[in-house]
Amino acid sequence: MTFMKDLSGRTALITGGSSGIGLAIAKKLSEEGAFVIVLARDKVKAEAAALTIKGKKLVITANVTDPVSLSAAVREMKEKGISVDILVNSAGVVHPVPLLEQTQQEIEATLGTNLLGAINSCKYFVPLMRSPGYIANISSIAGIVGLYGYSAYGASKFGIVGLSEALSLELYGRGIRVGTVFPPDTDTPQLEQELTRRPEPLRRMVGVGGAISADKVARSVIKGIKDGRAMIYPTAMGRFLRLVVGPAGPIVRWYLRRKLYG
Q: Known catalytic residue: 139?
């Protein structure tokens, strides 16, 4: 059943929207007629990215790990009379190094941006959201199954799943649906950098090719928003892994919603 059939006239806020998957989603939302807000730390990069988005857009400079920065972003949006229909949490970093070889700074940056950043984004921007609303939290295949060299990253992406599961219950009564996106390797500038450090044991596990386009991920997210999906799989492999790892997930979500909302 369609949840949000027409995205025209909707307002979408995308964190990490200046590159990669976030930018691809911003472009697709704009093509659907949405007003797109690109939120990123680097103002110059965000403004350059916004030039590639054809429709109505706004750039807001903020750091999802900094509550003061997010508070300022919320004030700016309130002053402009902006409410949000769609929130996409795409800001993320990755340091593909075995945990014992990672620096403390890399660990904290990974968890801070990927997980705490998404939590902060929801905490500060959900009060601006209207019903029906939708939150898309970008996880990863590494949020379904553990991967060598991705201990901190996997923890952050598994955490995204838990965040989405709990928020879906907390916000259901407000007419806001929450979905988790599980992209595999995606052809982005971040992956290009990541591959230069990817541990050899992982290369043997997953192979050396097969990255999908950010555009393909974006298309799957758009469909997921329209359908109000709890889980969004850009590839069949992600769906298969999730079904194998957690076959009772849909039943559990249905049961908990019934307990809370009848």
A: yes
Contact 173, 256 (CB under 8 A): no
Q: Vertex 110, ends 27 and 236: CA angle to 5°?
A: 55
Tokens 């300022």, located at residue: 72
Known catalytic residue at 124: no
Domains of the chain: 11-261 (3.40.50.720)
54 is written with which tokens? 């054809």
Return the pLDDT at 1.
59
Specify the pTM: 0.92
CA angle 103, 106, 112 (to 5 degrees): 140
Encode pLDDT of 128-146 as tens digits: 999 999 999 999 999 998 8
Examine the residue annotation and report whether 157 is marked as an active-site residue of this protein.
Answer: yes
Catalytic residue, chosen from 18, 30, 90, 139, is: 139
Decide if 136 contacts 110 (C-beta within 8 A): no
